[in-house]
TrEMBL record:
GO MF annotations in UniProt: hexosyltransferase activity
PANTHER family: GLYCOSYLTRANSFERASE, UDP-GLCNAC:BETAGAL BETA-1,3-N-ACETYLGLUCOSAMINYLTRANSFERASE-LIKE PROTEIN 1
Segments crossing the lipid bilayer: none
InterPro entries listed in its UniProt record: Glyco_trans_2-like, Nucleotide-diphossugar_trans, TPR-like_helical_dom_sf
Protein name, as recorded: Glycosyltransferase family 2 protein
Residue ranges of domain Glycosyltransferase 2-like in the record: 5-141
Length: 444
């Protein structure tokens, strides 16, 4: 046999027969199918047993509930053919699935997986995977930039990565997004090749896990999975054979370019604001903990991470956003680490300077050296963004913390003179340092 079709099943009596028939309809009959059934309360086992006269189909009954990731990993351990594919219990294959994709992989030994377009029964547009080629670093970078681009679990894979230990990782609490982490890890093994034609049919029957995920997009379990997904992506990156500089780039990309800004700005989609704040701060903290505890060799110089200054400025702005988020939720160590990373990317990032100044002056145990650093960051921010009232307010507070009252008064007057500078916190601080501000109507 050339291809093993792996089908983890659970309470699948309504659709498992459809999946089996799509396997039998393959124009290339050089395949076997292993169906592993988690303990179910319906007739899934009986339906599969009805297909067993076909010698290519094998049934495995699990004694204990493994869940979809555990059951899938159990199946991966049974693969003995050169190729394998996942045929999920509620989906079906195009008759040309095996012939077209095995032929493509046979012709391209540098590729580890191949897939076609996916037709969805929800009425949405077909999902079109993209070919991903290059070095392991380049492939992983492409996956982080577009996690739905390739290495989909509806493709055919070479079995060699499985022999090397590749498995799906558990993503607490419900294994949401385990497929995306698997894609990132698979990218380290070889290219992904994509065909334009539809070769897989994705069904969303109401009782399936896929349908549950679609209903639960903004629920607490899904949010926790977002955090766990990123932690696992970081674990994948830090255990590769990439250079230290490449690892650092990908770690930052998980949060800065891989949806970090969107992930950390979804308070309005969460009914419980406290839950949202906790969730978001855990995401930000996970990045820093993974980065700061990584075993990055101190003697290995980190190469320029983006040659294009515009790309470096973009990454710095994203990291500054994360620092601002961490400040809002009281995670000052996280914020300082993010702001530091931003300034390493782009010393001209005014927002990162502003955040660093704020963090340094609000440390209640700060020393004179920290006050001086706060003033330096604030002055750098005012030089970079002289028309931004917020950076002048930061400078006023930094100078006050350093004991420069006259300098603080000068900066708060400049703050108030700029658009957006007549804010209650500005007026309160002005009163603290003995400055009387003109009414806003007197401003030009």
């Amino acid at each position: 046999m050339t291809v093993t079709l792996l089908t983890p099943a659970y309470n699948a009596e309504a659709f498992i027969g459809r999946a089996i028939e799509s396997a039998r309809a393959q124009t290339d009959d050089d395949w076997e199918m292993i169906i592993s059934v988690d303990p179910s309360s319906d007739d899934t086992v009986e339906i599969v047993r009805g297909a067993l006269p076909d010698p290519r189909i094998r049934l495995v009954i699990q004694e204990h509930r493994l869940g979809w990731v555990g059951n899938t990993n159990a199946l991966l351990g049974m693969v003995e053919t050169p190729y394998f594919a996942f045929l999920w219990h509620d989906d079906r294959l195009h008759p040309e699935f095996c012939r077209r994709l095995v032929g493509l992989l046979d012709a391209h030994p540098e590729a580890v997986a191949a897939g076609g377009a996916i037709e969805r029964t929800t009425g949405e547009a077909n999902r079109q995977n993209q070919s991903i080629r290059g070095t392991p670093f380049e492939r992983m970078r492409q996956i982080l930039a577009n996690p739905l681009a390739g290495y989909d679990l509806k493709s055919i894979y070479r079995a060699a990565p499985i022999a090397a230990g590749l498995r799906l990782r558990h993503i607490a609490p419900k294994d949401y997004h385990a497929d995306r982490v698997f894609a990132l890890e698979a990218a380290a093994y070889g290219d992904y090749l994509a065909l334009d034609e539809v070769l897989y049919y994705k069904h969303f029957d109401p009782a399936t896990l896929s349908a549950q995920w679609m209903r639960d997009t903004h629920g607490p379990a899904y949010m926790s999975a977002e955090v766990a997904q990123r932690a696992e992506e970081l674990a994948v990156i830090l255990t590769t054979d990439l250079t230290d500089g490449q690892k650092q780039h990908l770690v930052e990309l998980v949060f800065a370019k891989g949806g970090g800004r969107a992930l950390l700005s979804r308070d309005d989609e969460v009914a419980d604001a406290a839950t949202a704040a906790d969730w978001q701060s855990r995401v930000a903290a996970a990045a820093v903990v993974r980065l700061m505890t990584a075993d990055l060799g101190p003697t290995d110089p980190v190469p320029p991470l983006e040659a294009d200054p515009a790309q470096r400025a973009f990454a710095a702005a994203e990291l500054a956003d994360l620092a601002a988020h961490a400040i809002r939720h009281g995670h000052r160590a996280v914020a300082e680490a993010q702001a530091t990373l931003a300034l390493a990317r782009d010393p001209g990032c005014a927002e990162a300077h502003r955040h660093m100044s704020r963090l340094l002056i609000e440390d209640k145990e700060t020393l004179a050296e920290r006050h001086a650093r706060a003033v330096a960051h604030a002055e750098a921010a005012t030089a970079l963004a002289p028309e931004d009232s917020r950076v002048w307010e930061a400078l006023a507070r930094a100078r006050y913390g350093a004991g420069d009252i006259d300098g603080a008064r000068e900066a708060i007057l400049r703050t108030h003179a700029l658009p957006g500078g007549d804010r209650p916190p500005v007026r309160r601080f002005a009163t603290t340092i003995g400055v009387t501000l003109d009414p806003v109507t007197d401003k030009p």
